[in-house]
C-alpha cells in the first residue's frame, strides 16, 4: 500500500466519521438541546496558518465548529473523488475546482479568493548583495533549498525551470521542511533561499530576513492563485456558503493579507487579476 493510498484512506475515514454523526434523539424521540453545527473544510496546505485564524473568527461569528484539513490540493481532490466528505474546498489553482465542478462534485459558483508569489530571502543585511535569481548561481553564494516541500520553488517557478534546476543542483543543503530552511536563513547559515511570500510573515522569520521579489512571469500561473467552493453534497449548505462569503468578506480578506497573501479584493490582488488572470474575471467576488 503506497503513501498516497494510506493518506486517501485516512482522509475518507475521518470525513465519513464526521458526516455520519447523528443525534440519538432522532432515533428515540427524546428531546435534546440543539447541537453545534460542524462544517468540514479542506484546503491545500499553504494557507493553513491564515485559514486557522479565519476559522477561529468564523466559529465565533456563527457559533459553529470547523473541522479543518490542510494537505496537498491534488491529494485532497483525489480523496473527494473517492468519496471523502467535505463541505468546502479551498485548493491552490483554478484547475482543481474546474475538475470537481465538471464531475458534478462542486457547485459551479466557486471563486478566486487570493493570490501568492515566490521571493528570494537572505539573512538580514543581504551580505552577498543579491538582487535577482541569477545571483544565486555565483560560486560564493550559499543556497539552501527544500525540494521535498509540497510546492517547492522548482515546481512553482516552472517557466524558469532551467534556471531553477541549476540553483537546486548548486544547493548546499536540501530540506524536507521549509521551516528548518527558514530558520537556517535567519541564523545566517546560508546566503539565500527561495520561498513562498507567506513564509516571511511567520513568527521568528518576520523582520529577520531581507526579501527580494521574483518577476511574476517566472511563476506557474496555476501555482499563484487559490479558489474557494462549496461541495454539492454538503449537509451544511447554508453554513458552507456563509464560510465562502466570510473568506471573501473584508474581515476574511484582511486576515489573509496579514499572513502574506494578496487577497483578490486588495489593490495588489486586483492588479494581478487584470495583468495575469484576466480570463478568469468571472470567478471574482463581484461576478
TrEMBL record:
GO molecular function: metal ion binding; molybdate ion binding
Gene Ontology BP, a term: molybdate ion transport
A Pfam family assignment: SBP_bac_11
Annotated SUPFAM superfamilies: Periplasmic binding protein-like II (SSF53850)
Keyword Cell inner membrane: no
Superkingdom in the source lineage: Archaea
Keyword list, A-Z: Metal-binding, Signal
Identification of the protein by name: Extracellular solute-binding protein family 1
Organism: Methanococcus aeolicus (strain ATCC BAA-1280 / DSM 17508 / OCM 812 / Nankai-3)
